[in-house]
Predict the 3D structure of the following.
Amino acid sequence: MTITAAADGSALGNPGPAGWAWVIDDAQWRAGGWPRATNNQGELMAVLDLLHATAHRADEPLTVLCDSQYVINSVTQWMPGWKRRGWRKADGKPVLNRELLEALDEALQHRQVRFEWVKGHAGHPLNEAADLRARGAAEAFQAGRAPNQGPGIAGAADSPELSPQPGAAAPPTLF
């Protein structure tokens, strides 16, 4: 059976307080964030945490609904070239968010993952749920509170990338 989940990120300012979230359904979701990060970092982290959370079900296909063309293009089109060039873009400049992208590359190994673009803020129920939780995490960091991390998924090991508490360090490769 295919697992279908939406993944989204949010930044209040870019960079600014940031959140990420993935949602399978109302009983299976998770969110987190950082005191200061970019929207793209939140988008990438949502997918990375989803992959970690579903690793115990790696034999099942995973469909990731995502409103970020950056994430989809990064993992489905651009990553092979970046890796060939030593994580450099075609213009020779370093790839931004390299640590998150390398972690995604590793987490995608031996997984059957399909990315599907959905238009953001257009009423797609799972995308709207992920957006709401990601924004809620960003707002929690803005207010100096820990975000509601959600229930996660039954049987999952804790992700190595759990959200820090307010005031903790920024995500990898911020600027």
About this structure: The radius of gyration is 15 Å.
